[in-house]
Amino acid sequence: MGKYSVPEEIRKMKPKGTNIKVVDGKYYVYTHEQAKNEETGKWKTLSGHIIGKIDPQVGFISNDENLGISCFDYGEYLLLSSIAGEEFYKLCSFFNRDDALKIFAISCIYVSNNYIGVKAIEDYYEKSLFAHDYPSIKVSYKRISSLLESIGRSDIKDRYQSSLINESEEVAIDGHVITSESDNNNLSSFGFKTAKTGSSYLNFVLALDVNSNMPIAIEAVPGYQMDKASFKDFYEAKFNNFKDKIFLMDAGFYSEDNLSLIASNHNSYVIPASKNYLLYKEVTNKNNKCNNFIYKANGKVDSIEYKEIVKDNKKVIYFKNLSEAAKLDAEYLTHLDNGDKGYSLDRYNELKDEFGVI
After folding, report:
1. What's the burial of 130, exposed, middle or buried (CB within 10 Å: 0-12/13-18/19+)?
2. Structure pTM?
């Protein structure tokens, strides 16, 4: 048996994430957890409560009179663990292993099942691969709430996000609407998107690593606040200490102040230009010479019109898909000929030059 007091064949019968103690020749199974010595800073394993015993002839026998769950959702969580397993090890650099596993498991549950309430997570967890493989990790509404509150009250999330940002070279910024009917959510409010959502909402400003497609920073902001108004605080809180990055944003974040803020840190940006922008008007001027090229993708072949202007250390690039422009033009004229509501000759003349512009 070497240095082990428990035979190997007995150790193979215990659930993962548990310990075995030998008492009067019998094998009892205990949970265990990681604890940090505040004086030395080192982690050590502590035994928890007894959950059952091992009979060499039968195997593991749980103390729970209720036989519990015996069929687990295995495939989807196994897939997510294999795809995002590296993220778990990153979490372990900032959290103790048990908390890191809880955070990773909750994240996988959200990815697999979309958003669910915190109170429902325990049920999903108990049916998952994680509960099967790590029975000593307990997930409940109270434990999750305490964990989330401790993360929210500490700077650990900011340090974690900074580590992810530091590894990124190209960053995509986007805003996401999250509907909310909560009376206790101070961020939830009515805004210009209420007509579409039908309720009050809050916004998440999200940063993604373009190359890995992984989220690297997030911030919740009031629903009434537009993307371009929320960007300054988000940028200064998350990216103010980083340089030489490229930011990709949609037109909702466009403002001269936001672009100047990015450029002040030696960063670059790619963003749709405002129609009121002087260089936009110049690059779309029909008198300026265009180049053309053929773009092939997914079995389609399109003719693309291209031109660019560089001025004051800024480059404005104009692309127009001529194939798409012809299609949109024909569709609009068909609606116009049919007398469909919302289509007019004046509106057609306003839009026709923008058909196919990327």
Report:
1. buried
2. 0.64
